[in-house]
Structure formats: structure tokens, C-alpha cells
Amino acid sequence: MNFPEGLPIGSGWIPAPSTAPVHFPYDGTLVARAPVGTVDLARQALENALSVRAEVGRLPSHVRRKVLQGALSALASQRDAFVDLLVLETGKPVVDCRVEVERTLLTLETSAEEVARLHGETVPLDLLPSGDGLQGFWVRKPIGVVVGITGFNYPLLLASHKLAPALAAGCPVIIKPAPQTPLATLWLVHLVREVLVAAGAPASAVQLVTGGVEVGATLTTDRRIGAVSFTGSASVGHQIARDAAPTKVLLELGSNSALVVAADADLGAAADAVVRGGYYASGQACISVQRVIVVESVRAAFLAELTSRLDQVVVGDPRDSATRVSALIDTPSTTRVRTWIADAITAGATLVHPQLEAPPTPTSAAPAPVAPAAASGGAIIQPTVLLDLPHGQLVWDEEIFGPVIAIRSVPDIATAFDTVNASRYGLHASVFTSSLETAFAAIDQLDVGGVVVNEVPGFRSDVMPYGGVKDSGTGREGPRFAIEELTTTRMAIIRPKPSPPKP
After folding, report:
1. Claim: this prediction has a pTM higher than 0.85
2. In angstroms, rounded to a whole number, what is the distance separating the alpha carbons of residues 110 and 107?
3. Do residues 229 and 366 share a domain?
């Protein structure tokens, strides 16, 4: 990690009054001590961002593009080191961390390309007689200071989806990373600030402040900022939206993504997708497969395909390229997931995988504390499949954020679609079918931000519009669409020659 100590605030790095340990989730070893910000430091970052708002907004397109291209080159030259750091601070399998770095590079590259596409249009004002002789056009203007708050599961990628579109739009940005995973984001911000200075732009265009709830509240409730872009839980996102009003708030709040298996599906492909889409990143992804809804006529055949694949999921050290499931981010997350599983089984769900050596502990009894994962993988939650969940179970209704798949069967595809929609979330859903009619019905009827046919609901290209409906959020990410969110239209209405007053 080749960056200064402290926090990148203003034109330099300011010492933080305290630090907090960042632990490797797999075995609990210390990775580093990270700076912890304060309300005062958050206020300093805000004042610095506001002081350069006009300057950043006037940066020429070629400078903004050059900065993003420079950040792309700087990150690409350190891609392996970033992968290693992400494995250590997130505990995600190395295969997923490699994907995260490559997606971050694509996000920087496409954000640089979108600078050239940031333009307006002419408007035919003379559609009404009152517009005769008027010329009209609109342009896009930066919305102002952007506050980007990111989650722990993809810290580098999520930060790039806040930072890169903001710079492309001409907005200063302040990043607040998750307390568990600040290191890769600090390094990314350092690289971007070096490129900014080299291009003659102010380092204050990109800043980072760590800290707790009070730091986040300071950043998001200042009426002078232009927008807040938040990735995290629904409860926190809703609170930010309430507290930040009337400031524009973009929310990516996760989901309990569904995968539908139709009667005419390729069952082998569907089973592969459930395993691949349910367990990547140890299940800590907002569009990982959580709910599987199978048409009853193919239930037995699908379960046979699925169970034959479960023992092939490699569980263990995330530094091993073969590993697909490892420890979750921290002990509270592990305890919560285990409790939800136990509650579902106590309520009547069938545990398909793995087989337990002892009966589960319901919430009525205090769950046993979970230690950090040891080399034996003792605290790792094994890839889990639950069948026939009763209604009202958190493992079905809420986002579990762990390696757990819950399955229900339904009589027909119409009921399957109704079951997908019977959720307060709506980010992505997928359907496996060989019927174009069913595919287009899914696109038309599923109340989600993205419908995926014959692929995992976790598919995301970083250039596409990405976001949800209902409690999964508001607004869209993806460089082109985020830039639109972070700019406002300004209408220009011109009468080239003033008309003489009518008698």
C-alpha cells in the first residue's frame, strides 16, 4: 500500500486522531491499521470540496478525460497488488477480487469515454407562435459536490462507480468507505489525486473521510452538497434519504434476488447458475441468487441436478484460486446468517445441504459466539440450501448476504412471477426458459430493475444502467447513467433580435 498516512483531505493528507484495525476475515490476522475520521475532518472535507466546486465544474473536457485515463493507467499498473489487498481486507475469494479489479478498470475507462458524450440538444421553441424567432438548446451542468458512501463487499468497484462519474461530470466528490474495508479505496483515491495534480486540477476534487454514523450524517445532511450516492442496506439508505432531503439521493440498497426455473428450462444450466450465482463472493453480493422458484413439474429433476453440484463448491482460504466460499466479513455477519438459517429450519424448512452434526439453535436461545475463521475454516458458513421455506422467514424475505440459497416450488410460471414480485425488493431477477414467450413475459411482468434470461441474476456489465425499484433503491449507476444523475439540464432560450413592442 503505497500511499501516505492519514486522510486525503484538501490539498494534502491530514493525520487522523485515531486508527482502527483491519483484520483478514479468514483467520483474524491484522492487515493494517486504518485512519478513523471525525466530524471535524468531515467538515473540513466539505469546505474544501465546496471551495473548488466552480473550478472543477469548469475543467475542460480534455482534462477530465485525461485524469480518468491516468487513473486507469495507474490502477492497471498495480492490478495484482490491488487484488492481494482486496483479498486481505474483504476475505473474498481471490477469483472474485480479480474480477473486481477488472471491473473497476472498465468503469474508469468507460467514464473517461463518456466525457466526450456529455452534451445537450436544440429544442424547437417555435412549436408555439410565442416561440417564433427564438433559439433554444439545453446543456448539462454538474450538480455540485457529490458524497459517495460505499459498502464493504466490493469496496474498490463501488468507490469507482461514485468517483469516476462524478469527475466525468465535473463534480468534486467525497468518498466514505465502509469501516471494515477502507484500504483499497484509500489507495485508489491517492492514485486519482496524483493524476489530478499532474493535470493541473485541484487535489480537493477527490477526498476521502472514514468514520462512523456521525461522519456520514455530517457529509450527507449539509444543504450545500449536490447529491448523495449510497450503496448499502435498505434501512440505512432510507434514513439517509430522509435526513438528506431535499438533496438528491441515489440509493443502491440490495435485494433478495430470485432465479425462476420454468418447466421448459435447461435444468443443468439452471443448476449451474444457482451454484455459480449463489456462492460467488461467499454470497456477499446484492444480486447473488438467494430465492430459487421452481415450477413443480421439474422440481425433482432440478433438485437432483443441483445437489449433484454442491460438493464441487470449494470452501477454504480465499487466497487459493480454487476457493469459491470463505469467511464472511466479520463475526456479527456470520452469527446473523447462522441464526436466520437455524430459525428457518426450526420453522419447518428442510436443510438440503450441508448435513448438520447437531440440531440448529433457534433465536429463542442465544446463538453461540463465532470466532474468526481459522485455517481449518471452522467459522466459515458452508454453502447452504434450504427447501420449502415457510412464509415469514428472514432467509427468504430479507437480504441474507451469505452463501445461502432458499428454494420453493410453484404450480406454474405465472405463480412464479407473482412470487418474485411478492417482495419489498426489486433489483435483479432471472428466468431460465427455452420459450421466447416466457422470456418476454418475464421482462414485461417482473417488477425489478433488471431481468436476466438464461443467466444468473448477478450478471452486471458496468456500462449498463444498474439499479432497482421498490426498496432496492432509486437512480441508476453505470457511467453514462450515473453522469446523467450527477448533472442537471440548463435550458438556454435566446431571441437573437429583440422584437419591437406591439402597438
Report:
1. yes
2. 5
3. no
